[in-house]
């Protein structure tokens, strides 16, 4: 399954819209989507909404009464039908979906467009092929009845209305009787029927349904790996079903006490293959070799070579059907003595690769990864993204990465970026720009200067050069250090670049300011683009002559404040600080900020200091 678009009205920082067609919209590409946000832009709201939709609205929950099932051979048929019941949970309690603080009394609505993909079609075909077998178990253990069928549609629009008073929800969908939609809302019903069938027909089990939705939470525990797996008390199929059922109830902020479930799922699949081969004409070493060479594990190991590892399983206790799951160090050509000796970055890449390939050859599905940079060194963040790109060549998944890492934003990924920001009323807006060629070149400049961190700020202040950037950043640190994460300063390499950089960042919803030297007034105010060396206002005489030639200069400089453009009235920053124009300016600026900045800013008789503080008051308000 893939998400086409999501619209949100009156949920936390998302404002209220009377007409849902006008509501804040996030559109998603079929492959890679990178969601970034400024601090406080409530990115977790989007994740919580998606998690709520998949856990409560689409994949509705069914409960198995294990006590009754254990008595299935002694209880009456009416009691047997109480073994598998729909939970009918129309509550969104436990999900943080409060209304916007400005419209507490207004209705809350979520609208989502989804489409089925290859995984869903494969699951439906599996159900159709086994519908008679499953029908017997549905009649025996449930009052709920539904028959899988070929779907006539693959795209569905759901409108979900939240009721704050009792924290319940209702769903509107025009084609609710379509077989594809019925497959989604009965997914867990079918899954439990397959589980029952496999428990009672272990010799000829039905293949479990594949998951079309994976959420890798930001709370990942990579310190509790279990190196063994056992099949003595329950089959691999049973254990896989139990793990997936448990996983259904996890929220995005669930703190893991054990290893990610996917590690157990991969171990079980490999062990199951070995168990099935054992006792055939193959010898014991051949069974192990075949189990370790099956297609899905070969694909996993192909990707794990990136971190110089290979996964292998070994039968350690035949009496208990106990297996060890080892990682083989390809660099040292020996097994790892302790899986926990791997770095967090290696474990994170293993996690990603396992999630991608444990399902086998099916293509498609939705994978959401919350803060992939967690536990990852800067270098591994780039490797992680490269692994995703390589995987997607094979699998055609829809990936949604929710990140605060500038390492994942570059000239190659920028077209996949959707940025969540807050407007002046504190409401979330979504920016998905379509960049033209010259703007993509600007991204490459940000790559080379390692300045993509600007996308995660609220405000960007553009300055002409490195001396300006150091000085104004020092002023911010001196006067408003608490805004360091909110405001960034970027050197754009000269006044001629102000406008294109300003337009570029505004496309992503950032608030953009420009601070230029006096000679930038030629281009910005008087549209003089000649830009000759003689035009540079680098002396008191030239500055005075320029002012006399433009009697309306100060008035027009003041007017530019409305556009968030600030032109220094008396030259450049070196002139303001009485720094010699000879030699290297940056060391002189650094020394000034270290020794004299505090006195300069506190001098209430200094007009230049007062002008600087006036500009900062506008930027930091």
From TrEMBL:
Originating organism: uncultured bacterium
Domain OLD protein-like TOPRIM: 455-519
Protein name per its UniProtKB record: Uncharacterized protein
Source taxon at top rank: Bacteria
Pfam families cross-referenced by the UniProt entry: AAA_15 (PF13175), OLD-like_TOPRIM (PF20469)
Domain Endonuclease GajA/Old nuclease/RecF-like AAA span(s) in chain numbering: 1-409
């Amino acid at each position: 399954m893939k998400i086409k678009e999501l619209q949100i009205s009156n949920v936390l920082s998302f404002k209220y819209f009377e007409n849902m067609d006008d509501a804040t919209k996030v559109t998603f590409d079929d492959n890679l989507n990178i969601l970034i946000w400024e601090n406080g832009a409530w990115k977790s709201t989007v994740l919580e909404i998606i998690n709520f939709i998949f856990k409560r609205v689409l994949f509705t929950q069914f409960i198995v009464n294990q006590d009754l099932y254990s008595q299935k051979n002694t209880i009456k048929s009416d009691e047997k039908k109480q073994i598998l019941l729909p939970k009918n949970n129309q509550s969104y309690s436990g999900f943080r979906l409060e209304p916007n603080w400005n419209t507490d009394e207004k209705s809350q609505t979520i609208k989502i467009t989804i489409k089925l993909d290859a995984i869903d079609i494969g699951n439906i075909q599996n159900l159709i092929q086994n519908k008679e077998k499953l029908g017997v178990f549905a009649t025996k253990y449930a009052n709920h009845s539904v028959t899988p069928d070929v779907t006539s549609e693959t795209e569905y629009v759901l409108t979900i209305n939240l009721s704050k008073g009792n924290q319940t929800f209702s769903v509107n969908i025009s084609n609710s009787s379509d077989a594809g939609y019925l497959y989604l809302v009965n997914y867990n019903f079918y899954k439990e029927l397959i589980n029952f069938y496999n428990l009672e027909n272990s010799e000829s089990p039905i293949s479990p349904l594949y998951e079309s939705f994976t959420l890798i939470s930001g709370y990942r525990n990579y310190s509790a790996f279990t190196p063994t797996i056992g099949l003595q008390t329950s089959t691999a199929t049973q254990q896989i079903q139990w793990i997936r059922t448990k996983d259904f109830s996890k929220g995005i902020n669930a703190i893991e006490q054990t290893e990610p479930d996917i590690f157990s799922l991969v171990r079980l699949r490999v062990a199951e293959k070995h168990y099935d081969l054992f006792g055939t004409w193959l010898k014991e070493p051949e069974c192990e070799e075949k189990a370790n060479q099956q297609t899905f594990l070969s694909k996993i190991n192909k990707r794990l070579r990136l971190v110089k590892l290979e996964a292998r399983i070994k039968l350690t206790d035949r009496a208990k059907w106990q297996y060890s799951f080892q990682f083989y160090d390809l660099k040292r050509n020996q097994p790892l003595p302790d899986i926990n000796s791997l770095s967090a970055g290696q474990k994170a890449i293993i996690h990603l690769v396992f999630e991608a390939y444990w399902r086998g050859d099916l293509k498609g599905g939705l994978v959401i990864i919350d803060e992939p940079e967690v536990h990852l060194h800067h270098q591994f963040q780039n490797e992680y993204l490269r692994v995703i790109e390589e995987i997607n060549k094979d699998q055609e998944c829809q990936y949604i990465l929710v990140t605060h890492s500038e390492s994942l934003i570059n000239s190659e990924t920028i077209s996949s970026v959707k940025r969540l920001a807050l407007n002046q009323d504190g409401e979330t807006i979504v920016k998905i720009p379509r960049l033209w060629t010259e703007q993509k070149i600007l991204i490459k400049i940000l790559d080379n200067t390692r300045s993509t961190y600007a996308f995660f700020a609220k405000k960007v202040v553009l300055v002409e050069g490195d001396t300006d950037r150091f000085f104004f950043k020092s002023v911010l640190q001196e006067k408003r250090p608490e805004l360091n994460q909110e405001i960034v300063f970027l050197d754009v390499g000269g006044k001629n670049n102000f406008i294109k950089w300003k337009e570029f960042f505004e496309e992503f919803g950032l608030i953009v300011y420009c601070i230029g030297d006096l000679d930038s007034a030629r281009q910005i105010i008087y549209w003089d683009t000649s830009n000759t060396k003689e035009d540079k206002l680098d002396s008191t005489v030239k500055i005075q002559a320029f002012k006399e030639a433009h009697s309306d200069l100060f008035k027009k400089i003041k007017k530019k404040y409305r556009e968030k453009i600030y032109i220094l009235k008396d030259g450049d920053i070196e002139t303001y600080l009485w720094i010699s124009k000879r030699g290297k300016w940056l060391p002189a600026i650094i020394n000034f900020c270290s020794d004299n900045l505090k006195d300069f800013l506190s001098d209430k008789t200094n007009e230049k200091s007062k002008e600087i503080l006036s500009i900062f008051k506008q930027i930091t308000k």
